[in-house]
Specification:
Layout: H1 2-15, H2 28-32, H3 36-43, E1 47-53, H4 57-75, E2 78-84, H5 87-99, E3 110-113, H6 116-123, H7 146-149, E4 150-151, E5 154-155, E6 161-167, E7 169-173, H8 184-193, H9 206-219, H10 232-249, H11 264-272, E8 278-281, H12 286-292, E9 300-303, E10 309-317, H13 325-335, H14 338-345, E11 353-354, H15 363-370, H16 381-385, E12 388-389, H17 394-409
Parallel strand pairs: 1-2, 1-3, 10-12
Antiparallel strand pairs: 3-10, 4-5, 6-10, 6-11, 7-8, 7-9
Helix pairs in contact: 1-5, 3-13, 4-13, 9-10, 9-17, 10-17
Length: 411
């Protein structure tokens, strides 16, 4: 009941968003046939409602102030950033609108998305597709890269565009511990040797779910045994071992595993308060940001795992019934611009890795990206890349999350 209450509140909030009297009138096919200048003029003076995870103040500020400022100053477009805690709830808004027959006046103009949520929207025919070639900055995207062209194993097929690349990373306080555990087996031993000093957000929280997948990879004998379409027999074998491992460590977790943090923000606060000794995030640069803003102690150090961590690409997507598609296209093109990608690479802004292929830039511009210094306490990107692990197809992830809820979270 709590989930549906949250969804109802989100829908009610969305319904109160201001809509421009000059919303885009062209449908997707018409937009895809237009010249870029025509799309910009159609979008000018309008607005765009971007629903996105809102759990980071620095990301929120970058989007609302920096990106919103560009849209307002250069295109006279108002950006309405709608922060959410669960992207699946936004997918349900769009799905509900389709089921209600709302085919061209939806609430949501754009979503920050990837993985199982993208798969769900594709399966539900909820996505506006076929437009990337219209975007001038599409030339900066390397669609020949399988990690870009496929979203958790699902072909993108012109239905979303990349925004960032990311990889899971751990961090610890060097003032409290001499060295961190650098493999999943070592981490499990560390948890038992340091009672109360570790926990993870409860799935389906994004970061909590990723942590559980690392244990699942370990229990399966390596991710190579899980790749491809979902296989019940392979899932069952790995799942049984995974739930046993996670239930075995539960008494050694923070608060003896009687409760789990609800979000990555809650885990970060526990780490900041020294209630736990290890923290993690799918965005490694988060360590530097939290040191600079005073949340984390300056003795926090990010690090790579010798047995690897999971990496992926995240995207922006326009729902099929967005009434402001032209404005959403302008927003996507701004997000892909050299200016915007370089700004969010700055460690004091966000520090996230570009979604564009910087090898496609001229020498002088590429040098600007290469010159950006990561915070010294952020794990070097190459250290992570050397042992990067792929994400599973979305069907695996849904099963793992539900399996955790049924076999670990409900105990």
């Amino acid at each position: 009941m709590r989930y549906f209450s949250k969804l109802a509140v989100l829908a009610a909030t969305a319904a109160m968003l201001p809509f421009s009297a000059m919303a885009d009138t062209a449908d997707g096919d018409a937009l895809n046939a237009m010249e870029w200048d025509e799309i910009v003029e159609l979008a000018r003076g309008g607005e765009v409602n971007w629903f996105m995870w809102g759990g980071s103040d620095t990301i929120n500020q970058y989007v609302s102030e920096y990106i919103g400022g560009i849209l307002e100053e250069e295109y006279d477009i108002t950006l309405n950033r709608v922060g959410v805690t669960d992207t699946a709830s936004v997918v349900n808004i769009v799905l509900g609108e389709r089921e209600a027959g709302n085919m061209d006046n939806g609430t949501v103009d754009m979503i920050w998305i990837n993985g199982e949520n993208f798969r769900t929207m594709m399966q539900g025919d909820l996505v506006y597709c076929g437009y990337p070639d219209v975007l001038p900055n599409n030339a900066l995207i390397n669609w020949d890269n399988p990690a870009i062209a496929n979203d958790f194993g699902v072909p993108v097929n012109g239905c979303e565009v990349p925004w960032n690349t990311a990889q899971f990373a751990f961090a610890y306080n060097t003032a409290l511990y001499d060295a961190p555990p650098t493999t999943i087996p070592a981490l499990l031993e560390w948890i038992e040797a340091n009672p109360g000093q570790f926990t993870y957000p409860a799935p389906p929280d994004f970061n909590g779910s990723v942590f559980v997948r690392h244990v699942f990879y370990h229990a399966a004998g390596g991710v190579e045994n899980l790749l491809g379409e979902f296989d019940q027999e392979r899932y069952d074998a790995a799942a049984e071992a995974t739930w046993q491992i996670l239930n075995d460590i539960e008494p050694y977790l923070w608060r003896e595993g009687q409760t789990y943090p609800a979000s990555i923000a809650a885990l970060q606060q526990l780490y900041a308060n020294q209630e736990v000794g290890i923290v993690f995030n799918y965005e490694p640069a988060n360590v530097g940001v939290n040191i600079e803003n005073g949340t984390f102690p300056p003795t926090t150090q990010g690090y790579a795992m010798a047995d690897g961590t999971i990496g992926n690409t995240n995207y922006t997507l326009i729902p099929f019934n967005s009434p402001n598609k032209a404005a959403a296209l302008v927003l996507q093109n701004v997000l892909l611009s050299v200016q915007a990608q370089l700004e969010k690479l700055q460690p004091e802004v966000w520090g996230t890795q570009p979604g564009i292929d910087i090898s496609r830039l001229d020498d002088a511009t590429r040098a600007m990206f290469e010159a950006v210094e990561r915070h010294p306490n952020v794990v070097p990107a190459q250290d992570l890349a050397d042992t990067a692990l792929p994400e599973l197809q979305a069907s695996w992830i849904s099963a793992i999350e539900q399996g955790w809820i049924d076999n670990v979270g409900s105990n």
